[in-house]
């Protein structure tokens, strides 16, 4: 059979990993596809010492690849929004299939890209864009196709999980661990995307669309990062039987769809609470199957290449079929996407909370705070008051039952205005993730 000719654009961490694994495992991959997959051309600004490109045509202009009539599949691994969009649209316009690891691109421009791909009858595949090496897109889109999915929750940024794990287990400094994650090739070109939850929100947007059959709506996802998590809260959570994880949560109810990324307290005995370092995990709850979990490396050259190549294999198998016989990009046919499902604002979301405040150690303070919470209809599950003999300030922690975020925000504003409360009230959402 004719070989499938691939053009790889971008020869950084993922690009070099992809070329290396395609060459190393060429025989094993061809045993699966029934025909060879060949790296026909590479578009790279510069050579990469981690990748031997001997015998491969290397061009400095990635658009040479998108316009090369020999090429069947353009693999976009340059990252970013604008040039990547232009490259992918050019490739589609030229009738080429596209594989991309770029979650920013799919989350923000995916609806247009999928429409263009449909018009041209080409495949756009993006398994590596979410949770690196874990086949979670395929797992949800194909493996759970029988289910009505109720919710999913995932640790979907390897860099962030790596930082939080190193801070918690070794007391290491945030900036040091971030620099290490960058050196290991885990971080985004702009690492604030990792730390402030933007990368996780890109991935969550994609997961939500694949789970619920809704258009991609990154602009409506709520995003909160990990940069304000303190060692004190990590320690307090631990004492209370919780781990703090940076989660992306998508939930569907009759009110609408929740799409939110934020630090979250999870009971220590949940499997997902024990996912550490660069590892990622996504829990998905389907009505027929119940809770499931997908686990593995969320970043890094070859784990990500593993998913990029799985997509190339899918293209090799599907490229000669009719468009309507293929798995649609989001797993639901494009004309059956639910255009009207509202994405809830964070004010309308209900969760339980961990609330920590610093109060002057004077009689009546605790009662005043409890009264504010109760006036807002927030019921308290536990109060923990710490003694600090060195200071006249005491830390107080409230664990609450579920309440609406709007009520909690109002309560926090009132608590912060009390004279005996010092500084900002810390609030971290709590999720049980039990069923
Ligand atoms: N690193 C990971 O673990 C990982 C995992 C999953 C997904 N991704 C995604 O994969 C993509 C690539 O990430 P990476 O970590 O390999 O980044 P990287 O910075 O290591 O590599 C990107 C490469 O593309 C090149 N490039 C950028 N613009 C170019 C242009 N116009 N012409 C030619 N070359 C250009 C850069 O010079 C660089 O070598 C991103 O979308 C990223 O979000 C990365
Ligand atoms: N920067 C991303 C790469 C994988 O998508 C992460 O750390 O998870
Ligand atoms: Na994946």
UniProtKB/TrEMBL annotation:
It comes from Oceanospirillum linum. InterPro entries: ACT-like_dom_sf, ACT_dom, Asp/hSer_DH_NAD-bd, HDH, HDH_cat, HDH_CS, NAD(P)-bd_dom_sf. Pathway: Amino-acid biosynthesis; L-threonine biosynthesis; L-threonine from L-aspartate: step 3/5; Amino-acid biosynthesis; L-methionine biosynthesis via de novo pathway; L-homoserine from L-aspartate: step 3/3. GO terms for molecular function: homoserine dehydrogenase activity; NADP binding. Transmembrane segments: none annotated. Residues 354-430 form the ACT domain. This is Homoserine dehydrogenase. Its EC number is 1.1.1.3. The active site is at 203 (proton donor). Belongs to the homoserine dehydrogenase family.
């Amino acid at each position: 059979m004719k070989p499938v000719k691939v053009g790889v654009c971008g020869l950084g961490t993922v690009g070099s990993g992809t070329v290396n694994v395609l060459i190393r495992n060429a025989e094993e991959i061809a045993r699966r596809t029934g025909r060879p997959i060949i790296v026909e051309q590479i578009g790279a600004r510069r050579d990469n010492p981690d990748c031997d490109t001997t015998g491969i045509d290397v061009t400095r202009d990635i658009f040479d690849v998108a316009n090369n009539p020999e090429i069947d599949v353009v693999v976009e691994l340059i990252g970013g929004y604008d040039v990547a969009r232009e490259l992918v649209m050019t490739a589609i316009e030229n009738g080429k299939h596209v594989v991309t690891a770029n979650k920013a691109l799919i989350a923000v421009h995916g609806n247009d890209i999928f429409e263009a791909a449909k018009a041209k009858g080409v495949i756009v595949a993006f398994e590596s864009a979410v949770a690196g090496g874990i086949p979670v897109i395929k797992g949800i889109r194909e493996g759970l196709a029988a289910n009505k999915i109720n919710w999913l929750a995932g640790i979907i940024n390897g860099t962030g999980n790596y930082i939080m794990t190193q801070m918690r287990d070794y007391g290491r400094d945030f900036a040091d661990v971030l620099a290490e994650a960058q050196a290991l090739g885990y971080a985004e070109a702009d690492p604030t995307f990792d730390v402030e939850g933007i990368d996780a929100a890109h991935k969550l947007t994609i997961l939500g669309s694949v789970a619920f059959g809704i258009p991609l709506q990154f602009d409506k996802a709520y995003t909160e990062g990990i940069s304000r998590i303190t060692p004190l809260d990590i320690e307090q959570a631990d004492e209370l039987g919780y781990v703090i994880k940076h989660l992306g949560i998508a939930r569907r109810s009759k009110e609408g769809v929740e799409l939110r990324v934020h630090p979250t307290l999870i009971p220590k005995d949940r499997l997902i609470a024990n996912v550490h370092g660069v590892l990622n995990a996504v829990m998905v709850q389907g009505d027929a199957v119940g809770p499931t979990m997908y686990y593995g490396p969320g970043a890094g050259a070859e784990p990500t290449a593993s998913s990029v190549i799985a997509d190339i294999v899918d293209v090799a198998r599907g490229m000669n079929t009719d468009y309507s016989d293929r798995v649609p990009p989001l797993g639901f046919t494009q004309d059956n996407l639910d255009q009207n499902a509202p994405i809830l604002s964070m004010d309308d979301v209900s969760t339980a909370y961990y609330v920590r405040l610093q109060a002057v150690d004077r009689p009546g303070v605790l009662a005043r705070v409890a009264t504010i919470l109760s006036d807002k209809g927030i019921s308290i599950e536990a109060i923990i008051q710490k003694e600090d003999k060195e200071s006249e300030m005491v830390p107080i922690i409230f664990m609450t039952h579920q309440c609406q975020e709007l009520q909690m925000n109002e309560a926090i504003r009132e608590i912060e205005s009390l004279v005996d409360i010092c500084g900002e009230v810390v609030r971290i959402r709590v999720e049980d993730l039990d069923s």
